[in-house]
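Protocol step 6 of 9: fold each sequence in the batch and record its structure tokens directly after the sequence line. For illustration, a two-sequence batch is reproduced in full.

Sequence one:
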Amino acid sequence: MKHIVKLAGFALLCFVVLVVIYWLLTQLFPKMMDQPSHITAAIIAGIVAIVTSQQHAKAREIAELHRPNKTKLYTEFITQVVGFLRNQGKLKTQDASASKKLEDFFFDFTTGVMLWGAPDVLRHYSAFRRIGANQDPSNLLLMDDILQAMRKDLGLSNWGLARGDLIKMLLTDPESLDAIIKK
């Protein structure tokens, strides 16, 4: 029964749309064409401007609705990165529970970032996940790429930030990253 009601509603909507299109084609457009060309151009430009501004407003509204979820997700990620870097110097080998917690976090984060992350964040995170298992210090640059993509996704400017600047803020020895960048 529900399917029949949904189907009837969809059919009614399609019918209304077709009637409106028919009316536009048979009534409104011929009258517009009888007007001087500059008036017709102004009407068309006005319609385009209204439709465009409505699309931008809707996109902005959706972005604002997603912002709290993204902010929470990205804050959790940064908190984990800070915790990992803080403990990096203290622990040469992580115990099993710390490794398990980090693994669980990354599985949860991967799920969240797939839902809420911007394409740039996904691309940089994917690159980090592919290469991140190596103990290569250049992975810090991949981490910085993720952080900058997150900032951009939240609407923050990265103007004036070079690659590596954000991750250097978290390192006790930022000069060691400069050596890697110069390579």
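Sequence two, same batch, same settings:
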Amino acid sequence: MMDNPTPVMKGAVVENLWLMSLVALIIGGVIGFMLGRNSQPDNRQAALEEELEEAKQALENYREDVSQHFSKTANLFNNLTSSYKDVYQHLAGGAQQLCQSDEIVRSLEASLQPQLKHAEEQSDTTPEPPRDYAPKSPGDEGTLSENYGVSDKPKVRQDQHEEKIAS
């Protein structure tokens, strides 16, 4: 009975064959897309890695610039100190050579000497903070108190106060 397929059966087989081919093509396309997507490096990830490397390089350059700046500042400060010392020695030597009076020499040396003794005396006393927050009298509250300026009495407006006085 089945030896001779009918045209309807042939059409059904051909139709099934096309349908199966189409399904296989779609499945193959999805699998190919997934494999292709996973095997290629992500462009966004590569861009972020490149940006991270650039940021690291910029930070390293900045640190190097800061290090060079402070190194040069230290050298210049040492040069300034040395120059000050040379000027002081020149003025002190000139004062001793050119001035006849011992009193003038002592006053020049005293004015040229750094005021270290004054600075040491002043550093022994610690400065106090301003006392704008301190109370006016021992029972009053300071201006930084939470209750400063807050009273339990209702405030009387000026025009109400004047009406009470007038009546």
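Proceed to step 7 once all outputs are recorded. Observation for sequence two: The chain has a mean pLDDT of 76.
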